[in-house]
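Hello,

Our lab assistant flagged a job as stuck in the queue for most of the afternoon. It eventually completed. Since we weren't sure the result was trustworthy after the delay, we are filing this so someone can double-check. Below is the sequence as submitted and the structure that was eventually returned. Let us know if re-running is recommended.
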Amino acid sequence: MEGVGWIMTIILGGLAGWVAEKIMRAEHGLLTNIILGILGAVVLNWILRALNVIPPGGWIAQSIIAIIGACILIFAWRAIRGRA
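-- returned structure --
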C-alpha cells in the first residue's frame, strides 16, 4: 500500500480483506483477509500503473483500492476453481 507504514498496511489489509469477504460472500480467516487485502492493493496498484493511471496516495484511497483488488482476487480464485 502506497504511503502507509507496515503496521498500518497490515491493519488496512485486514480490514480491506474483511470488507471484500463480506462483499463477495466468502468465508476466510483473519490471516487470509490480511493477505487478500495487501495483495489486492499491490495487484490493483500494478494494474493501474500498467494502464498509465497514477494511483492516489493516502490511506483512504489505498483502502478502497485494496478492497477492489481483494474482490478481484476472490473472483479470480473462484473462476480458477470453477465456482464463479
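-- support follow-up --
The delay was a queue issue, not a problem with the job. The result is valid. The mean pLDDT is 86. The two ends are 27 Å apart (CA to CA).
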